[in-house]
Amino acid sequence: MRHLSEWVILTDQNVMHHGYELDGWVLRLTALSDHSPAQAINLLTRSLVSCGGWVLSRAVHEEGIGEMDFEFARAGCVEIYAVLISCGLELSRESHLQMAELCHCTKNLMASKAFDIARVDLVIYPGQHKTSHDAGALSQLS
Q: Are 97 and 5 in contact (CB under 8 A)?
């Protein structure tokens, strides 16, 4: 079995800057998307940047898996959570719990933690169910 990094077909890791230690929140989120990985990552990139996030790396793999690493100030965690949902991602249960915990803790410690940085390592898997658009296209073929 090949390692996931061997399947990369599109990435911008060579132009992003890495190599520093981050204290604080590091979330490992997983999600399903009915969009193609490239579409989902492009939409997320624009949306995250517009609400104050910093995209560190993006990659799309052959088997339809997308990966994205980004950071944001904890004061914007509710907006970031909303962006993930509004971009059509179906977060896993564990991912929802992590984001909810971050938002709850940040709210309670806003005075001292608002400008701390949170990092997210997001993996996007292709969705398994058809959208209503796909169902309409299939019904026209019958």
A: no
Secondary structure class of 39 (helix, strand, coil): helix
For a pLDDT cut of 90, what percent of the chain falls above it?
60
**8-41: pLDDT as tens digits:** 455 444 434 444 444 678 999 999 999 888 899 9
- Sheet-wide strand order for 117-126: 8-11, 54-61, 66-73, 117-126, 25-33, 90-91
Q: Report pLDDT for 113.
A: 87
Cβ atoms of residues 66 and 108 within 8 Å: no
Residues 6+ apart with CB under 8 A from 137: none
Q: What DSSP state is assigned to residue 14?
A: G
| Residue 9 confidence (pLDDT) | 52
Taken as a whole, the chain contains a residue count of 142
Alpha-carbon distance 34 to 40, whole Å?
9
Residue 52 structure tokens: 């104050």
